[in-house]
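Justification of resources, computational component.

The compute hours requested in this renewal are based largely on the per-chain cost of generating structure records like the one below. Each record pairs the submitted sequence with a full structure-token output. That output is archived, and it is also reused by downstream analysis tasks.
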Amino acid sequence: MPLSGREQSHAIPIRRSLLQGWLAASATGISGISVGMFAPILRAQPIKRDITPSCGTDDEPTRSSTEGPFYSKQPPEKSDFRADADGDPVTLIGFVLTRDCQPVSGAIVDLWHANRDGEYDNRGFLLRGYQKTDAKGRYFFETIRPAEYGSRTPHYHVKLRNGDDRVLTTQLYFPGEARNERDFLFNPALLMDVQKASDGDIARFDFILS
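The structure output for this chain reads:
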């Protein structure tokens, strides 16, 4: 029997509740939260994800990708992009980890992306900013879902710096997008793990540094 509208609304978890579960997690429990992003809430079993890479001796570091033409230097330190532009809400979360699953604290996670019309702010810093990972290696952005444009599927741009000269530049993708396979830069190793909440999507990607 199909669920009623009220039953469906209760069946979809509230984003705030899911985030509380994630904030209670730590990198030492990474394998236990790998399939369901929010094991304290969803009681996920400790098995390895097939989409978003986990850390471990058999896993490669996160794949790099092109920076693209729209990067702006010296973005502001901020994690909330919601005031910058209207759009479908997305909370982007994850860990920055070493290959042996140790959290990387103080890593700079620099995020920028297009708006819901597929346009970038190239004069200012709308939908652009960075934050540093906390002691557990976590990062957290409140933002929106970018639109496709030209030949590009929806994506986020990210740069990671870890206190030395090495910089990881990459792009993150949404699963199930029709344009993914037609995008010449798309890489399935860079798919985010996206879950629906009643008040917006939650996307997770764990960065594994070399």
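The chain has a mean pLDDT of 80. The longest strand covers residues 89-98.
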